[in-house]
Amino acid sequence: MALGSSMAAGPGIRPSAADAPFRAGRSARNYPHLVADRLGLDLTDVTYSGATTANILDEPQHGTPPQIEALDGTETLVTVTIGGNDVGYVPMLMAAGLPRFVRWLPPVRELFDATTRDRALVEVGESLRRVGRAVLERAPHARVLFVDYLALLPPPGEPVPPLSGSDAALGRRIADTLERLTGQAAADTGCEWVRAAQASRSHHAWSAVPWTTRPGLPWPGRPAPLHPNAAGMRAVADLVVEQVGAVSD
């Protein structure tokens, strides 16, 4: 079973998953599909682009029920990649690459509001714990793996065009906080943590061998901007398979 947002769904990575809603942006080559293929598991993939922790727990999304309702207690493995949309992580980075005057528009300006952002970062920690507890309750026999986000940004000191240095620093702060909170949520709820962010630091979107994409306009048939590419999905699948095998051996 796979739960999560676009970072797990894989929008733009061809081919699309059969019978997936168009808005889900769900790829047949995302890491949940790759893991299921390699481990010989039957897969139910309800990952959905734009999903928040609320969409996993109790809020429908574009007419689809909360993702947790797909669990029936027979699962042996559940992966969860969520949290970035709760704090506007990728939308903020996308907006940072737009012309300055656009940032005065109210919906965009809110993405950079320090009070709103810091409150969201505080709240997402408890939301992630709620997800962990709820998944374990619905799937008591499953191993539940929180899979955090692949690195998007290079380390400090490296250029990140078209982002400014201050916007890149803000993005790193959000990413680092999400990574830490995901690990804490896994530890606090008895789930496991697959450290995709740590493994991908040298494969950021501006690197020579990127696992994620740079900002830009969405283009049909290409991975979505500021999201995993096909190589990134394969790398995350490798991490999940390695962790599952390491504990099972």
Automatic annotation (TrEMBL):
What is the active site of this protein?
A: 6 (nucleophile), 227
Q: Which UniProt keywords apply?
A: Hydrolase
Note the InterPro entries from the entry.
Answer: SEST-like, SGNH_hydro, SGNH_hydro_sf
Q: Which organism is it from?
A: Mycolicibacterium litorale
In the record, biological process GO terms are: triglyceride catabolic process
Any one Gene Ontology MF annotation carried by this entry is:
triacylglycerol lipase activity
Q: What is this protein called?
A: Hydrolase
Q: According to its UniProt record, what is one Pfam family this protein matches?
A: Lipase_GDSL_2
Q: Where is the SGNH hydrolase-type esterase domain?
A: 2-235
What CDD domains has UniProt attached to this entry?
A: SEST_like
Indicate yes or no for the key word Lipid metabolism.
Answer: no
